[in-house]
Design brief:
Strand 3 and strand 4 form a beta hairpin. Helix 4 (117-131) crosses helix 12, helix 6 (158-166) runs antiparallel to helix 7 (171-182) and helix 11 packs antiparallel against helix 12. The protein has 14 helices and twelve strands. A nine-stranded mixed β-sheet has the order 1-5-6-12-11-10-7-9-8, with helices on both faces. It has a three-stranded antiparallel β-sheet with strand order 2-4-3. It is an alpha+beta fold. The protein has helices at residues 4-20, 34-41, 67-77, 117-131, 144-152, 158-166, 171-182, 189-196, 213-228, 234-245, 250-260, 268-283, 330-336, 351-361; strands at residues 24-25, 31-33, 51-54, 58-62, 82-91, 103-112, 138-143, 247-249, 292-294, 308-313, 324-328, 344-349. Helices cover 45% and strands 17% of the residues.
């Protein structure tokens, strides 16, 4: 196993590599505001982060990643366009796999540029691929923005679309909601009885818990409104099923998704962006005809991404996590920008894993 000194030396080398490409080197505090991260990710982040309490600053988290603090820094006083690089430790709790590190070094590269998002996508992907050259890795790509566009354009209620958008990163819950909203799955009997009762609160007894009676009544009204909504059409469901199953090389995936657009025309603009990205990657020398594209890629681990996503994997070492990952997070800049926003994409590498693979190859 590589020593800490070796990992830090490789991290410094990678950081210098990105600096030579025009990136400004930045630092972020190890302790981050828990409030900001909880606002972005909800309580789920607690299961992955180390949380502590400060008498003056409230809840703090050991830095779970660099992207959020770098975005905050840029939105507060960054120039446009901007490119940043950084390196340092991140901390992730491990409750199920004792062999996975709970502290490790990341090196990252972030681009904030509104002029040509497709070119920025290709730039980040190509530079990280070049940094990993010689490691025999499989690159996987996707685009969460296509699925988001499909959901946002469904002919169903805004409440249902909001629920689906909220659970895009939880595939099993997302599928359960789709099946219920389309009528493929029935409403649970206990809920069905609640919805048809003339007065669901009759004989309910003493109200306990944190919800007030009026909040419960509002929730019941929302459930009744949902039950009265027309189901998502079978044509739209078939389009979503096909979209979620797409796993091809990039150009072939684009052709399949264009067929899907017959039933889901709302994904058209996202496909235009995918086509532009394919061209930009070609211009960067990437062999897109052999580059894998999975329409569902990134849905379980990349919660703030909303467009192009990618990862590099050592298929001969399935026990290892991704060697590098990245993606586009335009919406995150809007959430943290106090009214401002800018297209942005970034990626991170793990120098410790790079050294492990180099030892194996040697």
């Amino acid at each position: 196993m590589p020593t800490r000194a070796q990992v830090l030396e490789r991290a410094a080398f990678l950081r210098s590599y990105f600096e030579a490409e025009g990136a400004q080197s930045v630092e972020t505090p190890i302790l981050q505001s828990a409030e900001t991260l909880l606002d972005l990710y909800g309580e789920d982040i607690r299961g992955r982060a180390y949380v502590t309490t400060d008498a003056l600053r409230g809840e703090q988290m050991l830095r779970p990643d660099f992207t959020v603090p770098v975005v905050q820094m840029h939105m507060d006083h960054g120039a446009e366009p901007a490119r940043y690089t950084y390196s340092g430790e991140v901390f992730r709790r491990q409750e199920h796999d004792p062999d996975r590190a709970n502290e490790y070094v990341q090196v990252g590269y972030e681009v904030f540029d509104r002029d040509n998002p497709a070119a920025a996508d290709a730039e980040v992907f190509a530079l990280i691929a070049k940094a990993l050259n010689g490691l025999s890795l499989r690159a996987a790509t996707g685009d969460i923005g296509i699925l988001m566009a499909a959901v946002q354009g469904l002919k169903t209620s805004e409440r249902r679309k909001a629920a689906l958008m909220r659970h895009i990163w939880r595939p099993r819950r997302f599928r359960a909601l789709l099946d219920r909203f389309s009528g493929r799955a029935s409403v649970p009997p206990c809920r069905a009885e609640l919805l048809v009762a003339a007065d669901p609160m009759a004989n309910a007894g003493t109200v306990i818990g944190k919800r007030r009676t009026d909040e419960i009544a509002d929730r019941i009204a929302a459930l009744r409104e949902d039950a009265a909504a027309a189901p998502i059409s079978e044509a739209e469901m078939l389009g979503l099923d096909t979209l979620l199953s797409v796993r091809e090389t990039m150009p072939n995936a684009l052709e399949r998704l264009r067929d899907v657009a017959v039933d889901l025309p709302q994904i058209g603009p996202a496909l235009t962006r995918l086509e532009a990205r394919i061209g930009a990657l070609r211009d960067r020398g990437v062999d897109v005809d052999r580059l894998d594209f999975e329409a569902s890629y990134g849905r379980t681990s990349m919660e703030y991404y909303d467009g192009f996503v990618f990862g590099f994997y050592a298929e001969r070492r399935p026990d290892l996590p991704p060697i590098a990952t990245g993606g586009r997070y335009d919406a995150l800049t809007r959430q943290l920008g106090n009214g401002a926003e800018i297209p942005a994409i970034g990626g991170v590498l793990r120098p410790g894993l790079i050294l492990v693979l180099e030892e194996v190859a040697a």
